[in-house]
Give the backbone structure.
Amino acid sequence: MFVFRTGILGGRVDISVTVNGEPTSHDVEARRLLVHYLREDVGLTGTNIGCDTSSCGACTVHLNGESVKSCTLLAVQADGQDVTTIEGLAPSSDELHPMQEAFRQEHGLQCGYCTPGMVMAAVSLLDENAKPTELEVRQGLEGNLCRCTGYHNIVKAVLAASGQPVKD
């Protein structure tokens, strides 16, 4: 859970955020969005900016293990918190996270723009429900949009990552 810091109406604020296990500290504008902090201040561009209104989910990251849309969260709200981005999901630089591998195996991406957010949301979904049904996967990913309409393979990838049989 995160806490909104009240009394910040403008100016700059020093924040410290652990991103992918690494401590970061920056002086940011109080109104800076977390997605811009991650991309521009921390230099992690895997978190995409899609709509800036929390409609598409391309900016999904984990805040203290919970899936959040970083385009509607201020960087100051993440002060003192742990953030995981798509870059920090894999156990090492030469292997993929099981969800990333399932997306690769099941062709769960087309243009790839939504993929980081979809993967992050899907990991969070399986953390909450290890063996979801197809309907539960579709409902769980409702807040993440794929403009290429690749949902069939995305759902297959999530089911595969959960260890369940995948139907064509």
Notes: The CA atoms of residues 62 and 78 lie 11 Å apart. The longest helix spans residues 115-128. The helical segments are 34-41, 98-105, 115-128, 134-140, 151-161.
